[in-house]
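We emphasize that the prediction below concerns an isolated chain of 223 residues; any contacts that depend on oligomerization or on bound cofactors are therefore not represented. The input was used exactly as deposited, without trimming of termini.
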Amino acid sequence: MQPGRQLEGTVNLAPDPQTYRRTPAQRSNFLEVTARGYALWRARSLSLLTGGPLSLCAEAAYFTALCRPHPGEHWLDVGTSAGFYAGVLARAGAQVTACDISPAMLREAARREPHPNIYYALLNAERSGLPGESFSGVTIGATTGETASPQAMLAEAARLLIPGGQLWIMAQARDGSGAQALLTRFGGLSFADEAQLTAWLPGLRRTDFWRRGNIVFGRWIKS
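Result of the prediction step, given as a token string:
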């Protein structure tokens, strides 16, 4: 394997649309133009969505202060997109498997974060096919809102964690707005609050939760 490059990982996308369905938001991520522009949006999105300054540096600092990734750990970055969390983890010394269903996103992530500690894999994070209890930690940055089955994605993340492993989620929370209703109807996006996320994670204990505007950050530990 050649870490830090986009590699052919385990592809496990079910061909039956009844068992695996891509949302319009997910399908848009297969476009090269979306992948190329994603990092620019990601750098500004939290400030726009929270109504105040919230930079990637601040997000990374909050994550590392709570999760404390370090050498010797192996993390899974679900829906890596442009590789933001994968890069933060790799620079902390952790080994990272950064997965996405979009080859275009993986190419962009590998271009932006060509770190030797990162292995880029083409994976369906709802059913990865990876061995259980394989990772010290799992990061999911906004991907729960784009997948057709956030509950399945979180169940898979919990399955892949070792006992005592930690799950980190950044997501856009439900606010009951008309804008979110339109995004759900036409983009296939979903929005979960703290209670919903916790209900989808039986066997994990929430240790930290922070909401700013309608953006939430949370940390859970597997029993």
